[in-house]
Design brief:
single chain, mainly alpha
Length: 93
């Protein structure tokens, strides 16, 4: 029973971390590119090419660049929590 409770906690925490990553990503790219340009979705989960250029230029302007590692940490926490919740009950031994 404790494993399932831990899974629920991990799932909730992972969802919160993913939410924070999403808000930071949107805020950063809206500030860096302007509100009329949609934030590039690929920059949510990777830093390469244009994402790297925007991050570098924006940091020179004083903005804290978005870091996709937060997205991946949240996704891993969420996935691990779901695995703990939905694993077979006999697997606790």
């Amino acid at each position: 029973m404790a494993v399932r409770r831990d899974g629920v906690s991990l799932t909730v925490l992972g969802a919160v971390v993913l939410g924070v990553a999403l808000v930071w990503w949107h805020h950063f790219y809206a500030s860096a590119l302007g509100s009329r340009i949609a934030p590039p979705i690929e920059c949510l989960y990777q830093t390469s090419g244009p994402c790297s250029v925007v991050g570098t230029v924006a940091s020179l302007g004083g903005l804290t660049p978005y870091e996709p590692m937060l997205f991946w940490v949240g996704a891993l926490m969420l996935g691990a929590g779901l695995i703990l919740i939905f694993r077979p009950r006999g697997a606790n031994r």
